[in-house]
Hints:
With 245 residues, the protein is mainly α. Helices cover 85% and strands 0% of the residues. The protein is built from nine helices and no strands. The protein has helices at residues 2-24, 34-42, 46-81, 86-98, 101-112, 117-151, 156-192, 199-208, 212-244. Helix 8 (199-208) runs antiparallel to helix 9 (212-244).
Amino acid sequence: MKRLGVTAAGVVLLIAVVQVISVSGVAGATWPSMSGILDFLRAPGSGDLVLSALASTASSAWWGFAIGSAVATALSALSAIATQLRPGLTTLVGVLHAIPIVAIAPLLITVVGPDTTPTVLAALAVGFVVFVAATSAQSDAEQATDDWFSTLGASRWQRYLRLQAPRSIPSILDGMTLAVPAAVLGAVFGEWFGASEGIGVLLVSQMQNFQMNALWASSLITVALSGGAYLVVTALRRYAYGVLT
């Protein structure tokens, strides 16, 4: 309860600071008041518009998170079992992560379409984090007891199932927790490049039309989505830790 109270007090303080800066005018017309943002959300049709866009972004982020986590986990398993493929897979994942979004998004639009691009970008962002977490844990497990498994004549498949996979689960869960905000960010950026709906589409339109109250409202809603998703995955990770231990 104490922690919840501190969090609530911090939120109230932040709202107060935003309101004071707006009233003072030191940040200019681009810094709206919290009351103006709330007025926009309460206006007829505005709240429904933002929530509809939020639902689209959440869907893209969720599917990107699920696909990216599954593919990254499968690739990490493949690199543990077929060790000769590990350098190539590690390089491939690193190169994909190093490509700027502004460079890869136009290519994805022509290949998978503008409405699928947000999901793919979210999956790419998630996949890198989960892959690194999984392979790092597998390497640690391998270094710890690899000689013992070799003495027993265990195959690479047996080592993975009995040693590396169980040892990598906590790290994979940690990686998935860190990857949640990246999934939301990837989905929003993907929507910037021509998607038909989503928070990213609203942000571009509101920015171009200098609708500051609407722009800030959409941005804060996106932050709330990212924070809420992080809290949900953190709770699931804590539950999984309890089951595993």
